[in-house]
Amino acid sequence: MTTTLKLVLLTTxxxxxxxxxxxxxxxxxxxxxKRLSTRPHLSPSDFAATYYRQRxxxxxxxxxxxxxxxxxxxxxxxxxSQPSDxxxxxxxxxxxxxxxxxxxxxxxxxxxxxxxxxxxxASMRTVGDIIEFITRRTGSxxxxxxxxxxxxx
Length: 153
Prior knowledge:
Helices cover 63% and strands 0% of the residues. It is mostly helical. It is elongated. Mean pLDDT is 83; it is low at 141-148.
């Protein structure tokens, strides 16, 4: 095989690989958009008011703003997210960017001026888990602050 032919084959293989990754990202974003499109689109404030009572509402609003910021870098709109959404499985953070969950943890640490261990980060699977963890870590009582999916009382 000539050097030119090898170079052409290598270039073609790289192009196909890059195209495959871009197509996969597009499919993942489409799945997340489809999953969230049937839900009400809520701002961070409306999300907090809908799913949490007063003491946890501030934390919920700030967590949603952090999630929205990280999601925007991934090309996602999380306005239809709910507390039960798994950040990795439902929102595809790790599939779209392997560092997205690390970015999320760092952004949460900065927003709330706390440290989150690897073990603690691994235990926060859903949006609600994150809000519960932050609420407890920052000293609020969480148990009485979660509503059952409707507007907060």
